[in-house]
Amino acid sequence: MSRGAGPVIAPGGTIGIFGGGQLGRMIALAARQLGYGVVVLDPDVGAPARGVADRMIHASFEDTAAARQLAEASDVVTYEFENVPEATVRAIEGRAPVRPDATLLGVTQDRVREHAFLHAHGIPTAPGCPVRTPEELAAALARFGTPSRLKSARGGYDGGGQHRIRNAAEGDAASAVLDGRLWLFERDVPFVCEVSVIVARGVDGAIRTFPVFENTHADGILRLTRAPAAVPPALAARAEAIARTLAEAFALVGTLTVECFVTADDVLVNELAPRVHNSGHLTVEACATSQFEQHVRAVCGLPLGDTALRCPAAMVNLLGTVERRRARLLGADIALGLPDVHLHLYGKASVRPRRKMGHVTALGPTLAEAVARAEHAASGLTFE
Ligand code: AMP
After folding, report:
1. Angle formed at CA 119 by CA 281 and CA 229, multiple of 5 degrees
2. Are 158 and 216 members of one domain?
3. Ligand 1 centre distance from Cα of residue 111 (Å)
4. C-beta 205 within 6 A of ligand 1
5. Is the C-beta atom of 214 inside 6 A of ligand 1?
6. Cα-flanking dihedrals φ and ψ of residue 204, to 5°?
7. pLDDT value, residue 276
8. Same structural domain for residues 223 and 299?
9. Which of 270, 277, 279, 354 to mutate to test the pocket of ligand 1 (most atoms within 8 A of CB)?
10. How far does residue 374's CA lie from ligand 1's centre (Å)?
11. Are residues 212 and 339 in the same domain?
């Protein structure tokens, strides 16, 4: 039975989390710091949140009976990633509040719905349109041209489910990708940089945005985040205003991440994530309140914390490069000898190429110094 009838879920209550990956683990750590109990549902017995949560429910995200167990053990339920089926979340409505709610989840797990929602609120995206058939693809190519890409409407993550179309010849070949499902055709944006804005909205409607972070991707995966972002103040303000508009439009309770392309004179939204985000990891050391604590505050009806950046900061992801069942990290002794370098490991037993194993955050007196420290530290760390 839900005990979260009042607006505030006081410390001592229990937070349920769908997903026990690194984001679930770091939400759980923040929840425990504030005195909450934590129950995590994840199919993987080795999920990073094990050992941090009070209780793990090992079940698939499609398992509505297990989801009900999660809800019954929790005062509020949240999630660490957007691919929890909307039906699973709908199945627990009325048993415990789900924050953010199923509507936001549903919109953000479908790129086509997401674009339609953004356009309905006057927020620009890369030019493009939904396509399902080779004829629709041909029409999109004729209308928008190349370079462009096809993104699967559902299920894409870390650059997965994307096919680039660099020229007309690749355009002809691209229809082989079409599988009867819906895809989003997108023209490439000549962006100057990519940024993200993480916004939190409380039960009482208060909104706080974190400073704008600048992100560099490699192979579709985030590699480096820098704060503050080197974008003109007017464009940073525009990105923040978009995040606020969306938080209001969704009546968000919790955290929403808005990933944007910054062009010479505009901000276009690339993608929304209804959750804390990899680009916000540096908030742990660099901001007055971390994104994880902010998320816990928001979903529990507590006041939101100050999001100010205390000093320049950089975060580098540590990705696996080899395949090993029992991974060990080499080089921590050197990395941690550098000033203001902080190492976070996610407790994943096995390593695989491109798997997110941990990250390094460095602070510095200048942004250049913070980036140099983070890069130096990360370059000496390997999983074997
Ligand atoms: P996504 O999975 O949509 O976040 O895409 C992963 C990365 O691919 C983005 O962070 C960009 O670096 C790149 N990308 C995606 N869509 C576009 C686009 N329309 N134009 C240029 N680059 C893009």
Report:
1. 30
2. no
3. 12
4. no
5. no
6. -85, 0
7. 98
8. yes
9. 270
10. 24
11. yes
Q: Quote the distance between the C-alpha of residue 308 and its chain's center.
A: 20
What's the CATH number where 350 sits? 3.30.470.20
Cis peptide before 228 (omega within 30 of 0): yes
Is residue 259 located within the same domain as residue 367? yes
Domain identity same for 144 and 182: yes
Please work out whether the CB of residue 240 comes within 6 Å of at least one atom of ligand 1. Answer: no
* CB neighbours of residue 81 within 10 Å: 18
CA distance 97 to 326: 38
Q: What is the pLDDT of residue 145?
A: 96
The CATH number linked to 133 is: 3.30.1490.20
Ligand 1 atom closest to residue 158's alpha carbon, by position in its atom list: 2
Total number of domains constituting the chain:
3
Q: Is 94 helix (H, G, I), strand (E, B) or coil?
A: coil
Give the per-residue pLDDT at 83: 86
Q: Would you say residue 109 lies in a domain?
A: no
Atom of ligand 1 nearest to the CA of 159: 2
Best CA proximity match to 281, nearest among 345, 231, 376, 329:
345
What is the whole-number distance in angstroms between the Cα of residue 104 and the centre of ligand 1? 21
| pLDDT for the residue numbered 1 | 36
Q: For ligand 1, atom 18, which residue shows the shortest CA distance?
A: 188
Regions of the chain where pLDDT drops below 70: 1-6, 156-160
Q: Is residue 175 part of a domain?
A: yes
Task: Please tell me the distance from the alpha carbon of residue 111 to that of residue 88, in angstroms, as a whole number.
Answer: 20
Closest residue to atom 17 of ligand 1, CA basis: 188
What pLDDT is stored for residue 327 in this prediction?
A: 85
C-beta 270 within 6 A of ligand 1: yes
pLDDT at 287: 98
Asked if 73 and 201 sit in the same domain, the reply is no
- Report yes or no on 289 lying in a domain: yes
Backbone angles phi, psi at 15, to 5 degrees: -105, 125
Whether residue 156 has its Cβ less than 6 Å from ligand 1: yes
- Boundaries of domain holding 74: 3-98
The answer to whether the CB of 109 is under 6 A from ligand 1 is: no
| 286 located within any domain | yes
Domain boundary among 98, 119, 136: 98
